[in-house]
Design a protein that fits this description.
Strand order of the largest sheet: 10-9-12-13
Mean pLDDT: 89
Low-confidence stretches: 502-527
Strand content: 5-15%
Number of helices: 22
Distance between the termini: 48 Å
Structural class: alpha/beta
Largest sheet: 4 strands, parallel
Helix content: 40-55%
Length: 527
């Protein structure tokens, strides 16, 4: 659970920290083999039934955090098996991205209706009366449910005046709006990769920490150690993630302390995306398309294309803010590499696409970056005033991409600036279960003429699987950041001329950002 300093989150952080330290220090295969013993040095178990199981699970966590394949308990071999394949800058995420460590899974029942000790054995026993399968009887003065007859409809749960009957569901299955998680022959969680879109909500929902995603911490740090120019492209949801004082300037300095050449905010790419999607909407709805859907959330886009392929044409063709920002950095800094830093597990999936690989070299989550910070003993509190630097920033609308409704709001604002007479109807959904309902209604023609915004995670990007803080807390911080922006829409941005004038943009994009910034700003303000 994000925002909760639990055993599970502490273990994840410890894994990311040790992998980052291993990369920074240039550890060997022998060093890697010793990591589980370094992290769990005791002879006695602390979390599981025995220390050997704890270390085995930790070993698979370390492997996936290095970007290596998960191995089932039936597969033997050294922990470092395959490390040489991960020890290359060109190592991309290989499917599956999200993995269940089977021998860490608790084999939770998928769905079960249970009578608790709160049952009073009341005279009315409404639970018995409402049960359509007559699965409930009275035994020893308490309600009893015959699990063979129970169809898990939940009517008894609603009818009980004491709330003494509960419907317990497997947390990972409940969190998966794509319906990708079922049980294997042993009752353990199994992910149907044909349905999974790598949103990662199962990962944050599993109380046993049995679900993990792959990481590129190791590859990114190796690239930094080689002296390559690695730029951090930081998603707008970063506010508050790395400490209480995470203003723009300190975060830029923070990434320099971690070894990155520099950092840029992805909100400027969000402004570019806003302009492109507004043009798409004006050009295509309703003359060419019944409705248009936003494109920036990769989990939403992948879910729509997998489950509603006939609606694929309705998803905007605009490049995502991550890709636009990465391309901008690489045009200004030839030979640079880009690491997208954000809250999203599905961005790792997006970066695996062959058309994106040349733009985005690494994708790291905020949680993974926190591990890098501990590995380097870097804290925002240690960053002094002298290290504050101006930070390339987008508009308030660009920053708003981080929260549910923000993308649609930005596009609507832009459309109204172009033509105030146009009414843009909006429908939005957050979480894949709600996205499915939205797309079903759109397929039936209920949203003709609309702009649809889909977010794979509840709350939007702030609810992504790679966040550290509670999503609701982060959403408030993002809203405050939006208000603090000097410009509220892309049109207010001092870089707007670059966004609108394609010919001039291409010419200026070839200049180094720092040397050209004064000229750009002067021209922008003069315009």
């Amino acid at each position: 659970m994000r925002g909760l300093d639990s055993t599970k989150t502490s273990l994840r952080h410890m894994v990311f920290t040790e992998v980052a330290r291993f990369a920074y220090e240039g550890g060997s295969k022998e060093d890697f083999e010793q990591l589980p013993y370094k992290m769990l040095p005791s002879e006695h178990n602390k979390y599981r039934s025995n220390i050997f199981l704890e270390r085995a699970i930790l070993g698979e966590r370390l492997r996936t955090a290095m970007g290596m394949p998960y191995r089932p308990a039936s597969q033997g071999g050294p922990l470092s098996d395959g490390l040489e394949n991960a020890d290359v800058d060109e190592h991309y995420y290989t499917p599956p991205l999200i993995n269940v460590i089977k021998f860490a899974c608790n084999s939770c029942p998928e769905k079960k209706v249970m009578v608790t000790e709160g049952c009073q054995g009341c005279l009315e026993h409404p639970c018995m009366e409402v049960c359509p399968k007559k699965a409930i009887s009275m035994k020893n003065g308490k309600s009893y449910i015959d699990q063979e007859k129970c169809i898990k409809c939940g009517k008894c749960v609603s009818a009980c005046p004491y709330s003494a009957i509960i419907k317990q569901e497997r947390p990972c299955t409940l969190a998966c709006g794509a319906g990708a998680i079922k049980s294997d022959e042993f009752g353990r969680a199994h992910i149907d990769q044909d349905k999974c879109v790598s949103c990662g909500q199962c990962l944050v929902s599993c109380p046993f920490g049995a679900i993990v995603d792959k990481s590129q911490i190791y590859q990114c740090i190796k690239s930094i150690n080689k002296g390559e120019k690695v730029y951090a492209a930081v998603a707008p949801a970063f506010v508050g993630q790395f400490g209480t004082d995470s203003d723009n300037q300190k975060v830029r300095a923070l990434f320099k302390h971690l070894g990155f050449r520099d950092a840029r905010e992805v909100s400027i790419g969000a402004d570019m995306c806003t302009v492109a999607e507004a043009r798409d909407f004006l050009d295509e709805v309703p003359s060419k398309l019944d409705f248009m859907a936003t494109s920036c959330c990769p989990a939403w886009a992948a879910f729509a294309k997998k489950n509603f392929p006939e609606l694929s044409k309705n998803i905007s063709m605009a490049l995502t803010p991550m890709v636009l920002t990465a391309r901008m950095i690489k045009k200004r800094h030839p030979g640079a590499k880009v690491a997208f830093i954000g809250p999203c597990a599905a961005k790792k999936l997006e970066a695996m696409r062959r058309t994106i690989r040349s733009d985005v070299d690494f994708v790291l989550t905020f949680e993974e970056v926190a591990g890098m910070m501990d590995a380097r003993n870097v804290s925002l509190d240690d960053i002094t005033e002298e290290e504050f630097l101006p930070f390339m920033s987008g508009s308030g609308d660009g920053c708003g991409f981080a929260i549910s409704g923000g993308v649609a709001d930005a596009v609507v604002h832009r459309v109204h600036q172009i033509d105030p007479s146009i009414e843009v109807k909006v429908a939005k959904a957050e979480g894949l279960a709600e996205c499915k309902k939205l797309l079903t209604m759109a397929k039936l023609g209920k949203y003709n003429g609309y702009l649809l915004e889909g977010m794979g995670c509840p709350g939007g990007c702030v609810g992504g699987a790679g966040t550290i803080k509670a999503p609701a807390q982060t959403a408030k911080l993002v809203q405050a950041e939006i208000k603090n922006k000097a410009g509220q829409t892309p049109s207010d941005s001092k870089y707007m001329f670059m966004l609108e004038n394609l010919e001039e943009r291409e010419a200026l994009m070839n200049k180094d950002f720092q040397s050209g910034a004064d000229e750009w700003e002067k021209k922008a303000f003069n315009d």
